[in-house]
Design a protein that fits this description.
By secondary structure, the chain is of the alpha+beta class. Among the domains are: 91 residues, Orthogonal Bundle (Helix Hairpins); 110 residues, Sandwich (HSP40/DNAj peptide-binding domain), CATH 2.60.260. Helix content is 27%, strand content 27%. The chain is built from eleven helices and 15 strands. Helix 2 packs antiparallel against helix 3 and helix 3 crosses helix 6. The chain is elongated, with a radius of gyration of 31 Å. The structure holds zinc ion (2 copies).
Length: 370
Amino acid sequence: MAKDYYGILGVSGDASDGEIKKAYRKLAVRYHPDKNPGDKSAEEKFKEISHAYEILGDPQKRAQYDQFGDAAFQAGAGGFHDPFDIFRGVFSGGFGDIFGQMFGFGGEAGAGSNRGRDLEYVLQMDFLEAAKGAERKIRVRRYEPCAACAGSGAKPGTGFSTCPQCGGSGSIIQSGGFFRVSRTCALCRGSGKVIKEPCSACNGTGRKEASREIEVNIPAGVDTGTRVRVSGEGEAGLYGGAKGDLYIVISVREDENFTRKGYDVYSLVRVPFTRFVFGGEIEIAVINGNADVSLAAGTQSGRVFRLRGQGINRLDSRGAGDHFVKVEVEVPRNLNSSQKKLLRDCEASFGTGTSKKKKGLIDTVKDAFQ
Ligand SMILES: [Zn+2]
Ligand SMILES: [Zn+2]
């Protein structure tokens, strides 16, 4: 049966490349097996959307699909790629072209080409956790060195022979017209050697996919979009190549008491109106505990106080931001009859209030923003 890849990603047939990528990112995060442990239907969905993205995310394949439908891909060599590879490729934006990597063209990069890829992990944190820093355990699925062959890819007890393609030099000279171009040998990936017999545990790649729990230290001050680099915790390289890095991308949940702008924190507190009238200390919550704010007698509702250095610690550890707290009047409800009487008397003694104002409306509004 023909598959509707556009429908699977929930985009229209004329969606832009950016829209397709965005749709995939959103769905992939929702259905990723790490987020839905043991849920088979989510895993199937994850595979399905990854395959749809593999086709629609590549302009050439998309054009083929538009013209011939998915029949063009079922007969193709090797079928689809590992959905986790597709996911990683999309979420490690900036670390090389996903398709180039998967088709083995990555060898062009030269000696470093066996290095494992960098991984990206989106970590959700609570507001205070992000502000104060935290240790978190996360589960990542990645390639790790194969234990059976110690990462070499060669069957234990067997060795290597000279690469038949490049004669052991690791590179191939191509000449065309005036140009002579030296390319890294694709067969041995520049090493000049090939495996005599592949390790059966890893099919000769030197690495195996595994799900691993690792502990990461998130520094105080991170915010949505911050990337925390964890060196050497990315993918194992091919044939024992160097490990890539892991990047933790932070996503901070909203908090009901605090918001932030950079390292400055904002909050709102309501206190009884008598406190505005008579003045006094009020205790407010800040990132690292509590702080006192002193209201002068006659303070107006809506006044903003700045508490220097009580905001969030800066990531570069050069001090902290400030805390801005807006203090508003809490209008009392459910008064008992004696309280009501007191306030009625109070109201009467003030007279009718607002009608006595001499200032016009414009002046009043200006005052409100001073
Ligand atoms: Zn192996
Ligand atoms: Zn070679």
